[in-house]
């Protein structure tokens, strides 16, 4: 029996991946309160805020639904880019939308 047979942490062999993929620049995360999220990432984890952007919305059509899977009249009211050391960056989004739920999801 191979040593992997007894290893509960062994992972499945995966394919070669996307040709040319060299790393992760950033990933996006929607949060209910950008200010609280920035405080957590910077004050607790030691990350650094790189920049912030204001409101983004689309007045007509369904671009927001087609591209971001949110209500067509949703708007990004606050966005921040956070740098986490030598690793990937985190892009934080806070939305406002006519159908926005204020209930926190359960794990």
3D architecture notes:
The protein has one domain: 2,3-Dihydroxybiphenyl 1,2-Dioxygenase, domain 1 (Roll). It contains two helices and five strands. The protein has helices at residues 34-44, 63-68; strands at residues 26-30, 48-53, 56-57, 75-83, 89-96. Strands 1, 2, 3, 4 and 5 form a five-stranded mixed beta sheet that branches. A hairpin with a 5-residue loop joins strand 4 (75-83) and strand 5 (89-96). The model has no long low-confidence stretch (mean pLDDT 87).
Search tags:
107 residues; alpha+beta; 2,3-Dihydroxybiphenyl 1,2-Dioxygenase, domain 1; five-stranded mixed sheet; 16% helix; extended
- How far apart, in Å, are the first and last alpha carbons? 37 Å
**Low-pLDDT ranges:** none
CATH superfamily: 2,3-Dihydroxybiphenyl 1,2-Dioxygenase, domain 1
By CATH, the architecture is named: Roll
CATH topology: 2,3-Dihydroxybiphenyl 1,2-Dioxygenase, domain 1
Series of H and E elements: EHEEHEE
Total domain modules: 1
**Helix-and-strand structural type:** alpha+beta
Morphology: extended
Number of strands: 5
DSSP helix count?
2
Indicate the radius of gyration in whole angstroms. Answer: 19 Å
**Would you tell me the overall average pLDDT?**
87
How much of the sequence is in beta strands?
25-35%
- Give the proportion of residues in helices: 10-25%
* Main sheet specs: 5 strands, mixed
CATH class wording = Alpha Beta
